Structures
1.
Amino acid sequence: MRTPSKSAAVAALVSLVLVVAVATTVPAQTLDKKVLSLEGARKVAAAAQEAARAKGVDVVIVVVDDGGYILLLERMDGAQVASVNVGIGKARTAAIYRRPSRVFEEQIKNGRVAALALADATPLQGGVPISLEGKVVGAIGVSGDSPQIDEDIAIAGARAFR
C-alpha cells in the first residue's frame, strides 16, 4: 500500500484550511432577509378589499415585494381600468422609497417640484409600505377613489400584515 507523500499531505491540509476560511467568511458576505409571501400578500389584499367594501367603493389593490415587483393585483368589479397602472405606481413607490407615496405628493404641493424627477416614483397618496421588524418587506397601493380613501384602504391592508 502506498502512503501519501509529504507534499500531497501538505496540499490536502492547505485545501482544508482554505475551505474552512471560505466557509467562515461567506456568512459575513450575505444577509438573511424576510420576504413577503404570496399568502401574506393575499391577507393584505383581503383586508384592503374588506375596507373598500365597507366604504362602498371599488378600487384596484396592488401588493408588491420590497423591490416593487407585483405579487398580487386585484381590480374590483367597478374599478376603472386606469387605476391599474396608478395602483402599481403607488405600491412600487412605497416599496422602493420605503415610505408612503403621500410623502412625495406633499413635497410637490409644498413647492419641491424636484420630487417629480425621482425615478419610478408616483407622487400620489395611496401607497403604503408593509414592514416587519422595522424592515420594509413590501407595499400596498390602492387607486380608484379619492386620495384619502385610497390611502385609508391601503393602511387597512398594511395593518393586516402581522
2.
Amino acid sequence: MKTNALSRLFNVRMLTLLILTVSLFISCKKETSQSQEPEAGNQAAAINKARELEATAASKAAEEGKALNLFNEGADNRHENRNIVQIAVSNPNFSSLVAAVLKTNLAGALSNPNVNLTVFAPTNAAFAQLPAPFNNAANIAAINNQGQIDFLKNVLLYHVLGAEVFSYQVSVGRSSATTIKPVGSSNDNTIYFSKSFGLLRVNGQSDVIAANVNASNGVIHAINKVLLFPTSNIAQIAIANPAFSSLVAALVKTNLAGVFTGSGDFTVFAPTDAAFAQLPAPFNNAANISAINNPAQISALANILKYHVLGERYFTWDLGILKRITTLADAPNNRVTTIVGYNTGWVKGLQNNAFAEINPGDVLATNGVVHVIDRVLLP
C-alpha cells in the first residue's frame, strides 16, 4: 500500500515537473520571440489574408469560369437539348476530359438519356497539372496500358454523382456526397464539399468555377483541379513522409498509431520534425521520444497529440475566422483557434504564442484530412 502511494506521488510530481518544464519553455520562447513574431502581429496578418480571401475568392473563381464560355441556361430550365457528353465535346476547354471519357469507354454511360447525373468536369488546365500521360488529350488518347486505363476510369467515375445536384442544393459549410466510383479501399468514393464566402470547393482544393450547366441528362459543374480519390489512411501518409519521423515516434510511443489506420473522419494538424525540434527534450526528436519510459511524460505526450486531432473532417476552407474547434484532447482545455486559408490556413493552441501556418493543407486520406503545420500545438 505504501509502495503504491509513493509510486502515485512520484508520477504526480513527474507530471507537475513536465508541465512546469513545458510552461517555462513557452514563457522563454515568448520572451525571446516577441520582437520577431508577436502574437498580435501574427494573428493580424493571418486575419487580413483571410478577409481578403473572403472578399475575392468567389469572384476570382467566377472570372476563371467566364473564360470557358460555357452555355448555361440556369438552374430553372431543365430542358437543355444536349447531353453531358455533347456539351463537353462542343467546348474545346474540355478536350482532355473528352479524350479520357473516350479512352475509358464511358461515353455511353454519360450520354444515357435515362439518367440524371452530376459531373464535376475538370478543364484542360486542370488535367495539365497531372503527370504524363494524364496531362493532355493527346497523351491520354495514346495510353495503351490497361492499368492506367483502369485508373483513369476510376478517376472519372470519382467525378460523377448518380443524381442531379445543383450548386445551390449543396449546404453552406461542410458536406459530402457519394460518387459512382466503385469502392476500392475504405471510403475512397466520397467527395467533400466546403461552401463558404460564396465559393464551393471540392476535396479542399478544387474550385467550382462554372456551376449549373444544364444537360438533358444532368448537370455539369466545371472545376479547376482534377479530383483524385485517396489511397492511403492518415497513418500511412505520416509513415511515408520522412518529415514526420517525430510525429510517428510519438504516435507509436503513446499507442495512438492504430487510431489512424482504420475508418473514421479525422482532421490531423501534423507537426513536422522541425516543429518538434522547437520543444524541450525529450520531446524534440524521434530518438528521444522513442526512449521515453516515464508514464507521466507518455500521458502528457498523448494528450498533446490528441490536441492536434479533430473528430470531424475540416478542410482549410472550413476553418472560419478565429473559429474555436474542439479537439480530442482532455477537456476543458481542448479547443484550438483556426483561420481559413486557400490551400493553406492557420491554427493556434491555447499555450502557443503565435499561429502555426498550415502548409501544405488538405492532404486527403481515406479516414480524414492532414494539414502540415510548422509548430506543435500546446493545450
3.
Amino acid sequence: MCGRYVVAGNVHEFSERFQARQVRFRFEPTWNAAPSQDLPVIVEAEDGAREVRVMRWGLRPRWTKPGERSSVAPINARAETLFEKPMFRPLVRRRRCLVPASGFYEWKREGSRKHPVYFAVRDEPLFAFAGLWDEVGGEAGEESAASYTIITTQPNDLVAPLHNRMPAILRPEHEDVWLGSEDLDPEEVRHLLAPVPAGTMEARPVGLGVNRPGNNGPELIAAVGS
C-alpha cells in the first residue's frame, strides 16, 4: 500500500516538471503527506492543458452528497482490479491523474516496533504516482470537493521484503498516456502500472519521527543507522 509519502516541491516546480499551467494556490513542501490531507494533483483540463489542483487524499464516492461525510474513502486502489470495482472502473476511463511525489515510506518490523524506510527514485526529485480522482458537488451553486486515490501494484525486489504492495510509479514516458483522455484497455493499464525496476530506486532507514502525522520537515528523510 501507500499510506505516507513526501512531496518536496512547490507549485512552480510542479509546473515545470509536469508541464502544467500555473495555478494560484499556496502549498508548502511536505515530508509526511498523510490520508485526509489536501495535496497537489495533476489533471488534464477539457482543453487538453495540464492543471495543478489541490485535492483531498482519500477518494470520496461520486454518489456522496455535498456536505455528507463518506464512510468509504479509499487512499489506495489495486491496479489489478481497477476494471472490476464499480467505484474505480469509470474513473480509469475519464479521470486519471498524476500524483507528484519525491518518495514514500514503508515500515519494517523489528521486535515490537515498526521502523520506517524511505524509498525514492534515483535522480528524480519529482516523479508521479498513478492516481484516480473524482469530484462531488459543484451543481446549483454548491462548492465542489475533489479527492483522489493512489494506485498500488506488485512490489519490486527492493520493496518486497517490507510490503506486498507498492505505489504505481509512472515512468516519465508513460505520463502522457496515463493522463490523456484516450480510453485504455486492461492490457495497456497493466503495462503502464507495472512496478518500476528495483535498480531505479533507492531505500534508506529513517527515524521514528515520521510515525506521527503531525511531524513534518526534511529531517524525517535523513538516514539513520540500520
